[in-house]
Amino acid sequence: MKKLFLLLLISLFAFTTYAAPKKLKVYISYCTFYSPQDGPYVETYLAYNGNSVNYQLNDNGLLQAKLEVLIVFKQNDSIKAFRKYNLSSPEMKDSLSFNMLFHDQQRISVPNGSYVMEISIRDAYGSEPAMLLDEPLTIDYNSKDIQVSGIELIFAAEKSISPKPFTKAGYDLVPLPLNVYPSSVVKLTYYSELYNMSSVLGDSAKYLFRSYVEEMQTGRKIPGLLVQKRMDAKSVEAIIQEFDITNLPTGDYFVVIEIKDRDNNIKGLNKVYFERWNDREQDLAMVSDEFIATSFVNNIRNQDTLKEYVRCLRPISTSLEKSFVDKNIKTADIQTLQRFFLNFWLQRNETNPEESWIAYYKQVIKVNANFGTRIRKGYESDRGRVYLMYGEPNTITSVPHESAAYPYEIWHYYTLNNQSNRKFIFYNPDLVTNDYPLLHSDAVGELYDANWKTKLQKRNFVTNSLDEQNPEFGWGSQVDDYFNTPH
Predict the structure, then answer these.
(1) Which DSSP string corresponds to 46-91?
(2) Residues 6+ apart with CB under 8 A from 324
(3) Taking phi first (over 0 means left), then psi (-120 to 50 degrees means alpha), and beta for anything else, what does residue 91 get?
(4) pLDDT digit string (tens) for 84-107?
(5) Do residues 118 and 126 touch, judged by C-beta distance below 8 A?
(6) β-pair type (395-399, 63-75)
(7) How far apart are CA 237 and CA 347, in angstroms?
(8) Is the pLDDT of residue 326 over 50?
(9) 129-183 pLDDT per residue, tens
(10) Distance (Å, whole) CA 430 – CA 327
(11) CA of 206: how far to CAs of 146, 193, 227, 267, 434, in Å?
(12) How many CB atoms lie within 10 A of CB 463?
């Protein structure tokens, strides 16, 4: 199942008769599903801004844009499935109609297995080379376990009158290819499918369907955004669920689906990440003073020490917690800091907050020792933040000396927040501070830069293209090998 929504901002500079230089904006996501007749398949959802593409007159004398799209599923160097097509915009009489979002959806049969999905997109009427996007993907559907398909975020769902490309389970679905919900959007709607309940639980069995919104940093279930119901076991069940997110604060979240049997055991689980941008005023809940006196925080009485403890929480803080600290860290009295600090850990471990704090601070000490520099603490660095957020990587490939590249490190996580095979690449462009900022990652919610290879090259690299993605690193370089197959 696809948990990650990808935002690809493709910069193409092309001159045509009908347009100034364009900056093509393409939004891409995908989900996996299973068909009893045809097996597993991947759905891709692509949308692009009509103002960001170049147009030409077609045979009908009307303006039309065209993208050349190639989607390839690879195992090592072997292509297992692909889809190549031209995506044309509607025909238009003039540029007044350009300001709209055009959608495309594809369904591609892909067998079970682990792949790298490569997507190439090029403006057919531009002059720049195609832009590339690659994403690790594992498909593993079977008939023995209860399984949850991909969770497809959608604009809307309506009963279908006649089948269309977006039709599933009798509904016409309009996919949402971008996983960001601004304040103007107050509903989150999704579509998903459940498989094998009757074969696993029995034809007459009942199960509990449970879905909720979970805060990414804390794992806390958001009050009011939870639905659960008893359902009869079927071989396939289509789910359309809507949440009112009007009051959901700015932050990083998951939509979660759980399937539980009559003994309350989780038999199926999936989740999808989304971001909320909410400009409505939000207050951070705080514990009252009487909780402080009987807690471990009562023993932290040095204000400077407490401020440092609060600062080091930033890598694992929610957006609301970061905002509170930024506004109050300089002026807050010790009681306010104590309330915030205790509340922070109660949100993560209600029964033993001190235990969670001690375990976390041990990791802070470690990252300060390993990633600190002359100008910043280790927890303030990108490597320190990633370590504190996700834990120790399974492998670290460190390359301090490669003739054509800046020093770099590749961190590889086998699993990460319900994702698999995720990588981070850090580099040291100034060759002095040992700071190693994050250059690129394929993990959800992290910095994705399609041009990371160009930026990794030393300053003597020269290119005429602002979007060069595959520069020549020279003889002996192992950049691609290290990134594609971490050691």
Answers:
(1) EEEEGGGS-EEE-TTS-EEEEEEEEEEEEETTEEEEEEEEEEEPPP
(2) 284, 340
(3) beta
(4) 999 999 998 887 767 788 889 999
(5) no
(6) unpaired
(7) 34
(8) yes
(9) 787 888 999 999 999 999 999 999 998 888 888 887 778 888 899 898 889 999 9
(10) 32
(11) 13, 17, 16, 13, 57
(12) 11
Q: What is the dihedral of CA 413, 419, 420, 424, to 10 degrees?
A: -40
The answer to whether 322 and 314 are in contact (CB under 8 A) is yes
Give phi and psi for 86, each to the nearest 5: -100, 130
Q: What is the DSSP letter of 170?
A: T
Question: What type of residue is 204?
Answer: S
As a whole number of angstroms, the distance between CA 422 and CA 413 comes to: 5
C-alpha to C-alpha distance for 187 and 390, rounded to whole angstroms: 30
SS (H, E, C) 246-314: CCCCCEEEEEEEEEECCCCCEEEEEEEEEEECCCCCCCCCCCCHHHHHCCHHHHCCCHHHHHHHHHCCH
Tokens of 59: 């045979």
Residue 319 to residue 349: CA distance in whole angstroms: 19
For the entire predicted model, the pTM comes to: 0.85
